[in-house]
Sequence to fold (228 residues):
Amino acid sequence: MTRARTVAAAEILLCSGFPTQILIGFALALAGVRGLGTTVGAIATLLLLDTAVVVTLMVLFTRADGQSPRALWLGSRPPLPEAVLGISLVPVVFALVAVLLTTLRLVAPALRNVPDNPLEALARQGPYESVLFGIVVIISGGVREELQRAFMLRRFEDHLGGGTVGVVILSVAFGLGHVQQGWDAVVTTGILGAFWAVLYQRRRSTLAPIVSHAGFNALEVARVALLG
Fold:
């Protein structure tokens, strides 16, 4: 049992994106790629490569555990109704974000410690950059992050204390992953992470979380690029 927990924790760490992004970033820097933290092209290269590596690792680990990646990520529900559900949840996610940010700025204004969101600046670099950044947030954000969430939740359910523990820990980690956007964004994205995690647990399919997450990300980039 201890070995299973250790293996599950190691798989979560390896598939979290942090070690792989560090290694890929180092390799890209050695290859002469510049602007990994400031230009959309370099960031897209890093994140899309990392997505390919992380998804490959999750497939290998899932199969090594005697499970099917298709069953893990798609379950037994028909895909079309799940996709439609995901689309219908996009306005719900927007409303949730609006309520959360407004409430936080009223009751805890100190949490807004980053006046200018650095990710929004990337979406305003130009038309080409906006389109590229939109593709990145759909694939690396909406798709990869929901596949990661399902993969990690299954590890918690099987070996690391159960699904509720997984939802709490992964949502906190998801929020902290957006700390460069400010503490209000940390709280908001943490709650969004919990929303998508519970949605996956209820549906046992990543399609609705993927569609709602990717749709929200894409529309946010479009909003920033077009309206500022």
